[in-house]
Amino acid sequence: MVPLLLVLLLALILFGAGFAIKVLWWVAVAVLVVWLLGFVMRSTSAAGGRGRWYRW
Q1: pTM of the predicted model, to two decimals?
Q2: 8 in Cβ contact with 18 (< 8 Å)
Q3: Percentage of residues in the chain with pLDDT exceeding 70?
């Protein structure tokens, strides 16, 4: 009974990790798209230079 539970637990952990990794890939793609849009659509500053659209 214990080996069966261990195998089921391992399968559940691997399934959860695979799902989490897939979600993290989608989050990374979304952040990249937002960064690229901000890079393309940034406004000019009063001095004529290109300013950042975010503040760090």
Answers
A1: 0.55
A2: no
A3: 73
